[in-house]
Predict the 3D structure of the following.
Amino acid sequence: MADRRRKRRKRPTAPAATAVCERPAPEPAAPRAQPRASRRARLEDAPKAPWSPFPLIELTILAGIVLLVLGLAGVAADRVAFSVCGFALVAVASLELSLREHFAGYRSHSTLLAAGAAVLAVIPLHFFTGLPRLVLAGVGVAVFAACFAALRAAFRRRTGGIGFRL
């Protein structure tokens, strides 16, 4: 049998400056489309607080829980004041976190924020006016409905059309 060998062409080590490319130039890459918004909120997308490394919200909630326990257990001298202050601390810290997450588009807290607005509207009316409870309930429902619609629309604008996230 005859031994046939193929002749190999020598490949240049560096491309020649005068060589013409036989392949057409690649088309520029199309701009990447924004990833479709999902209903699942990722932990790394959570908005950071201005005081980020310091756990202010968590400590405020802890202090509120301690005051609530002291007030409800009767350890403190003024049980009502301790309970009210503890509840207020927990509520304010929770509303701050909810506001930050809602308006950053991380998670929708429309119901919680609308209920907070309704409570904030009804409490002064209860203490400073002589309105009957039925009228106060109507005011609360109206404030809740208006705030819920506005908050849901704001969240949809922020997330590109998603009404809620888990």
About this structure: The chain has a mean pLDDT of 82.
